[in-house]
């Protein structure tokens, strides 16, 4: 485990960057906001990170109290990483960073990787209320726990139960929402997002 580097400045921002300022750390947090993940799953969803760097960051994050590692019971018998309560407190930090970065996003470049669930945090910023939302893209499905105060805020795959709303849209629409060029409500009105479901969230989106 590498020794912790420090800016050696008596400043809360500097102290925070001592912990989360290394390359990849906040993106690992983004992935773990979906709940426990295996090392192989993290590596698959962080294209560009080397195995050595990922292993080092995970060890550093465990040392700094952001993550824990535990072994799943049989038949899984694999180790998973998950955020601690301290690590989950980084959600508003990532949301603020994502909102600040909307202007940097631009159109997708040919070299840009994309995963469906990377749109989870922008959609969480764009949705109000509380409830379980299933999002369907051609690239894959994921679900959101809108208004969740503890535990995972999103997850891969269909919702683990009947969702309050289902949203069907394409990556271009997700990109427009992520860039701040469109609201979810506007995209629903324009027919770029199809909303189904009987929950309060679905009704609110259809009636807005």
Provide structural commentary:
By secondary structure, the protein is an alpha+beta fold. The protein contains eleven helices and eight strands. The strands form two sheets. It has a five-stranded mixed sheet. A hairpin with a 2-residue loop joins strand 4 and strand 5. The longest helix has 13 residues. The radius of gyration is 18 Å and the shape is globular. The termini are far apart. The mean pLDDT is 93.
Order of helices and strands: HHEHHEEHHHHEEEEHHEH
Secondary-structure class: alpha+beta
Radius of gyration: 18 Å
Mean pLDDT across the residues is 93
Largest sheet strand order: 6-5-4-7-8
Q: What is the chains' assembly state? A: single chain
Q: β content, as a range?
A: 15-25%
Number of strands: 8
- DSSP summary: helix tally: 11
Question: Between the first and last Cα atoms, what is the distance in angstroms?
Answer: 52 Å
Shape: globular
| Unreliable residue runs | none
Helical proportion? Answer: 25-40%
Largest sheet: 5 strands, mixed
């Amino acid at each position: 485990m590498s020794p912790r580097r420090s800016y050696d400045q008596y400043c809360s921002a500097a102290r925070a960057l001592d912990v989360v300022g290394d390359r990849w750390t906040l993106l690992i947090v983004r992935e773990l906001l979906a709940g426990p993940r295996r090392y192989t799953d993290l590596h698959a969803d962080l294209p560009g990170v080397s195995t050595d760097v990922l292993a080092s960051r995970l060890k550093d994050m465990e040392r700094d109290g952001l993550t824990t590692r535990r072994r799943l019971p049989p038949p899984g018998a694999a180790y998973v990483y998950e955020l601690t309560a301290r690590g989950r407190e980084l959600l508003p930090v990532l949301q603020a960073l994502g909102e600040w970065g909307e202007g940097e996003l631009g159109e997708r470049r040919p070299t840009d990787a994309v995963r469906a669930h990377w749109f989870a945090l922008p959609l969480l910023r764009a949705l109000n209320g509380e409830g379980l939302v299933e999002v369907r893209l051609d690239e894959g499905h994921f679900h959101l726990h809108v208004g969740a105060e503890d535990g995972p805020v999103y997850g891969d795959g269909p919702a683990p139960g009947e969702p309050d709303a289902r949203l069907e849209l394409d990556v271009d629409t997700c990109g427009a929402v992520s860039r701040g060029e469109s609201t979810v409500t506007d995209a629903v009105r324009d027919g770029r997002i199809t909303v189904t479901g009987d929950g309060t969230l679905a009704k609110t989106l259809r009636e807005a």
